[in-house]
Amino acid sequence: MKLLISVDPSVGCDYVGAKSGQTSHAKCDSLMRIQGQFRVVLSLAVTGLAAIARAEPAVMDKTEPAAAAPDAYPSTEPWDERLSLHAQSTFIVQYHPPFHSPYTGPLSLTPDNSADETWSLSLFLGARLWRGADVYVNPELLQGFGFSNTTGIAGFTNGEAFKVGSRTPLAKISRLYFEQTFALDGSTETIKSSQNQVAAHRPVDRLTLTIGKYAVVDIFDDNRYAHDTRSGFMNWTIDDLGAFDMASPAFNYTYGASAELYAGRWAGRAGFFLEPRSPNAIAIDTSFRQFQPLVEVEKRHEPFGRPGKVKVLLFARRVDGGSFSGALAAARGTGQPPSTAAVRNGLVWAYGTGLNIEQEVASYLGVFLRAGLQSGQSEEFSFTQVQESASGGAVLSGKRWSRDGDAIGLAFVVNGIFSSERAYLAAGGTGIIIGDGALRYAPEEIVETYYKLAPWRWVSITPDVQFVNHPAYNQDRGPVWVFGARLHGEY
């Protein structure tokens, strides 16, 4: 179900991988300017259509029905949907000025002036099949690049930048999955129609099974205040736990199955997802040879009447990954940089854990905190090169100044790696996203702030600033200032 189709095959600028070495954009500059204008116009068109669609609000009866019998699952009320259709378009442009850099390596962030952009257009189609059963599909157009082909910073600055880039839009089926919910008692809650959500009354205590193609973080590591690049923070390791090496091929979505159990103030989740065939690869290993199991436990609470959550995540991965010490030993005496690819000679297990906290402080203010680590003897496989991380921040809603759709966000993240990977990078090794050819280690420190301006409910404009100290854990390079802007529309 995964389509990689160039929308304009006559154009000679195709997609390149993060390690392809094709870092020159010069021959496509004029084309990119034209495409950039086109994407902005198309994004505005999506928001305009949303305005028209929302001009006549649908009538929805939100009256709670009487409690049903434990085995009942209401599905014929007038506010229940049979079909749902939503759309979004997001255009992000980022720029960094020159920064200090005495040397560069194969996967370094370029130290010169650099500007790159990404664009996405998505449809969210949902259908109610029978009582409690839904199916969802997300066709998308994806285009653009992160800085230096999305390399050079472990906590990368644009969550819409996948680990491959494309000069022309790629048509893809990003998600295609089935969801079945079983009621555990008769109490329900109203769920509004939204992206990948058919409107209904959902059981409060329930068991939900999901199977198909989707992202691990669609189910795990969610956080109300930091989880969506299209409306909030943009940095990879602020939106998600940096040390969570989730099963995510180069385009992020993989095949898997998960179960979620909600009972009172507690929730538990378990999942099984397929890994890519090799680190940072597009192709998924459908032989079930390489995979990721994981579990998450959630406790909801309301101190002083303010909702919050605490989650604990445990994850593992079984992959054909090379060890850092093995790569260093194999390269000793050869005069060549070490390579974990050269010592991938068997399946290895790696493990990790994470803590995820969100808490409303006031009706207009929320805070979050994440922290985690993973074993550091073998190479990271799918997400990014982080073995320990801690992040936190706050989001202030425009309710405070009578602009409900606006928001201000401020967050930080500190990422790190352990001694074996430090030695590997210092000897000239490269991983899935970083490798400067040398290393004088220091933790990577990032601060991000944004202001989301929402003149209407269906469109937002967001200036964003990020400060990256010690990019790719290197004291010899940086710091880097990243200035960005996002145009987002949705229906």
Integer-rounded radius of gyration: 23 Å
Tell me the name of the CATH homologous superfamily: Carbohydrate-selective porin OprB
Q: What is the percent of helical residues? A: under 10%
Low-confidence stretches: 1-35, 40-78
Biggest sheet, in brief? 16 strands, antiparallel, barrel
Number of strand elements: 20
- Strand percentage: 35-45%
Structural class comes to mainly beta
Level-2 CATH architecture: Beta Barrel
Q: Residue-averaged pLDDT, rounded? A: 87
Q: How many structural units, i.e. domains?
A: 1
Main CATH class: Mainly Beta
Task: Please trace the helix and strand order, writing H or E for each element.
Answer: EEHEEEEEEEHEEEEHEEEEHEEE
Distance between the termini: 25 Å
Total DSSP helices? 4
**Could you please say which CATH topology applies here?**
Porin
For the largest sheet, list the strands in their spatial order.
Answer: 3-4-5-6-9-10-11-12-13-14-15-16-17-18-19-20
Shape: globular
Question: How would you describe this protein?
Answer:
This protein is mainly beta and 491 residues long. It has one domain: Carbohydrate-selective porin OprB (Porin, Beta Barrel), CATH 2.40.160. It has four helices and 20 strands. It has helices spanning 29-54, 236-239, 324-331, 419-426; strands spanning 5-6, 16-17, 83-96, 114-130, 133-144, 164-183, 188-191, 200-203, 206-214, 254-263, 266-274, 291-301, 308-319, 348-362, 365-374, 388-397, 407-416, 444-456, 459-469, 480-490. Strands 3-4-5-6-9-10-11-12-13-14-15-16-17-18-19-20 form a 16-stranded antiparallel beta barrel. Helix 3 (324-331) runs parallel beside helix 4. The radius of gyration is 23 Å and the shape is globular. The two termini are 25 Å apart. The model is unreliable at 1-35 and 40-78 (pLDDT under 50).
